[in-house]
Amino acid sequence: MSLEKKDEYDHKNWLESKDLTPVEATFLTALIWVDKRLRIVDYLELLESLYYRSNLQMPKSHTEQYDLDNKFWYWYALYTLGFFSTLAYVVAAISGALLGFYYVPAVGSAGPGEASIAYSQIAFIMRDLQFGFMLRSIHRWSAQVMTAAVFLHMLRVYFTGAYKEPRELNWLLGIVLISLTMVFGYSGYLLPWDQLAFWAGQIGVEMSLSIPLIGEWVAQLLFGGFSLSQATLQRMYILHVFLLPFVVTALIALHIGIVWVQGIAEPH
Q: Cytochrome b/b6 N-terminal region profile domain spans which residues (predicted)?
């Protein structure tokens, strides 16, 4: 009696019964050999099942349900605002990462009567660094375009009724994303540490202190105290560079994933 494990499928006879070309026979023989050891076919079937499940869109879009492919063509430009804001976010992230090689979040000055180190680094980027002016301009304009596109995207979703059942969760997720976009813009606005940044930060401190009960705690958490200091710039830098990019990227991926599953909602 042989102790060799019996093969569930007679692959050898199956291959011989098929009229295969040498290339096909070689490929299938290699696939069978690898599958016996690593079970890759099982994983491929699992991926195939996940692919087809993820492409089941519920509910069916209005365009598909009522065959309106050529009826709402004038709306199509408005349905690119989400992609446009995502593209602007990617450009801002790449340009911001490059700027991070030269920026220093420090409020101290290099000498008496000189500007802060943070502002001096911004001046170096704008005046002395090759393509620095272009790089910072790309970062600034992509951030502004992203903010405008997100705002217009939310307006389109609201006025076309795309926030209604069953898309309420994605609407709430969009509200969180536009709020984080505002925080992104505000934290980046303070990083140059010039007069505009200083007084914008002072307004933020006063607004935090005006919150009932927890105002002082919020001011200390976000700004490092009741007046602007090195702690303020350090917090804005960490928020802008290390915290928000990971959170926003994860939420954007989730947001797009839900749209992929549910489908695009045409005007109600």
A: 30-268
